[in-house]
Write a structure and sequence with these properties.
Blueprint: E1 9-10, H1 30-38, E2 48-50, H2 56-64, H3 66-82, E3 87-91, H4 101-117, E4 122-127, H5 140-146, E5 152-155, H6 160-164, H7 173-184, E6 196-201, E7 204-207, E8 213-216, H8 218-228, E9 234-236, E10 241-248, E11 251-257, H9 260-273, E12 276-280
Parallel strand pairs: 1-2, 2-3, 3-4, 4-5, 5-6, 6-12
Antiparallel strand pairs: 7-8, 7-11, 9-10, 10-11
Helix pairs in contact: 2-3, 2-4, 3-4
Length: 293
């Protein structure tokens, strides 16, 4: 089936947690979901649940009242079970920038328990990187507290260039592995390392001379190769990423984009560390990337 990544379902808060709702059920492509399931028996479909419209006040309202918390969980469970999904990927942690962790813990635990009880649905949690240039918003103690409830933790080991503000690798591997090791520092966490998913970017970045950049997907990458015909690719050893340069009237551009070699290095590292992988996102890369999996 054609790739349909991204998107996600927003959990919209109301004035109180009792009016939380998930809009947009009518636009779910049930046919696409059926096509995906038809390609294998060991496939599970877990859409993203987004908390982009939530404030600290909404979080406090919901977690301060058992009734409102249970209602919010019921809204989520009924939606995901009603649509025949296998669980949810929670995108909530970065929304609150490391604040109100106790409330976040409580809400995630409640959602996980509700999904599990309603049909053994899984809970994945997207977690931000915690190594410079980013602050440590999610740490080894959060992992220890939540691991009994969360089936997988999706580590955002990409967008490094957003933190540095200058041209460079999108997801340098040395930095990515330091993020994984930061979680594993706690001795109680090591035996649950299989729950960690190393984030692989299937997109790249095209940097202008002034440092500004735009994301680049597979189709655009091929166009650039054909039009610019670069005479060399540079391998960045520590980052384990390739780049090339091309010239326009406005100046020189530097492009970082995944390659078979860069992906293979990360797959080997995941096997060595006994962790999993998470791709962001299906449909953005080149077709032959999938030959590695």
């Amino acid at each position: 089936p054609p790739p349909r990544p991204g998107g996600g379902r927003p959990l919209v808060p109301g004035a109180g947690g009792g009016s939380s709702r998930i809009p947009g059920g009518h636009d779910i492509d049930a046919g696409w979901v059926r096509d995906v399931r038809a390609n294998g028996t060991d496939l599970r479909v877990l859409p993203r649940l987004l908390f982009e419209q939530w404030s600290l006040q909404h979080l406090a309202q919901v977690t301060s009242s058992e009734a409102e918390l249970l209602h919010m969980v019921q809204v989520v469970v009924e939606f995901f079970k009603g649509e025949g999904f296998d669980g949810a990927v929670l995108e909530v942690w970065r929304q609150f920038a490391g604040r109100e962790k106790a409330r976040l813990h409580r809400m995630i635990m409640a959602l996980s328990e509700g999904l599990k009880e309603a049909g053994n649905m899984a809970t994945f949690l997207v977690i931000p990187p915690g190594v410079q240039p980013f602050p440590e918003l999610f740490d080894k103690h959060d992992f220890k507290i939540l691991q009994p409830y969360v089936d997988r933790f999706v580590m955002m080991t990409y967008d490094h260039h957003h933190g540095t503000g200058r041209p460079g690798p999108v997801g340098p591997m040395d930095w990515g592995l330091r993020n994984i090791l930061l979680i594993m520092e706690h001795e109680d966490n090591d035996k649950y390392r299989y729950k960690l998913l190393y984030g692989l970017n299937f997109y790249g970045a095209d940097f202008r001379g002034d440092g500004q950049f735009e994301p680049i997907l597979g189709g655009r990458y091929i166009e650039l190769l054909r039009s610019s015909k670069p005479n060399q690719f540079i391998w960045h050893l520590k980052a384990s990423e390739h780049s090339f340069e091309y010239r326009e009237p406005s100046g020189i551009h530097k492009v970082f984009y995944p390659s078979l070699r860069s992906l293979q290095k990360r797959i080997e590292a995941a096997e060595k560390f006994k962790i999993g992988l998470a791709i962001w996102e299906i449909g953005q890369g080149l077709d032959y990337f999938y030959d590695l999996f």
